Amino acid sequence: MLHSRCYSRQPHSSHESPCGVAVIDEKNRRIEVRDKALRNLPPVVIQNRSRVEHLNLDGNLLTENALNMPVFPRLKSLSLQRNKIRDISRLLEFIKERCPRLESLSLMGNPGWPLARAGMIDKRYSIYRKQTECYLPHLLFIDSLPTTREINSRELALIDFFVQVHQSIPTVIAHRL
Q1: pLDDT tens-place string over residues 98-143
Q2: Which among 55, 70, 162, 59 is positioned nearest to 102, based on CA atoms?
Q3: Sequence-distant (≥ 6) Cβ neighbours of residue 112 within 8 angstroms
Q4: 75-86 pLDDT tens trace
Q5: Around Cβ 78, how many Cβ atoms within 10 Å?
Q6: Is residue 54 within a helix (H) or strand (E), and if so which, with residue range?
């Protein structure tokens, strides 16, 4: 299973927010609000938007509309795994406008996320990654994997191989029947 490259571990010097919703480091650069069934960004996130660099909102009930958010000028990593995001394009529009320094984005486990089946990257996922890279050119990681700007030619060939193998599997099975 892939794990997010976005900040997801509690920092050594962290504390819980006064309302008990978020884990925040001393300088408010890392905020983690996981598995709280939130439908909107909590006030602690909005209040610290000018300082936060790593934001983990995994396992909530956030949709792309809940993320029509204020500007996060320093945000470098954003993890939104296992939420209720269906319209990835709309979310990417919000992110492009409001997160100018974003380097890492993880959307795994959302209804609109094109699943990689059985550990292989299928064509839909490849298209999603390429479109996301074009739309957000500063990204270095998408779903914990380096963007093609960061992937060497050998890794790129391996990804292409998995896409081709995945597409040919139904043909091989059909010929055996």
Answers
A1: 999 999 999 999 999 987 555 556 788 888 898 999 899 999 999 9
A2: 55
A3: 64, 85, 86, 87, 88, 91
A4: 999 999 999 999
A5: 23
A6: strand 54-56
Give CA–CA dist 136/5, Å, rounded.
17
φ/ψ bin of 129: left (φ > 0), alpha (ψ from -120 to 50), beta (otherwise): alpha
DSSP string covering 92-152: HHHHHHH-TT--EEE-TTSTTS---GGG---HHHHHHHHHHHHHSTT-SEETTEEPTTTS-
Q: What is the mean pLDDT of the chain?
A: 79
- Token pair for residue 19? 């309302």
Per-residue pLDDT at 42 exceeds 60: yes
**3-class DSSP state for residue 158?**
helix
What are phi and psi for residue 76, nearest 5 degrees?
Answer: -105, -35
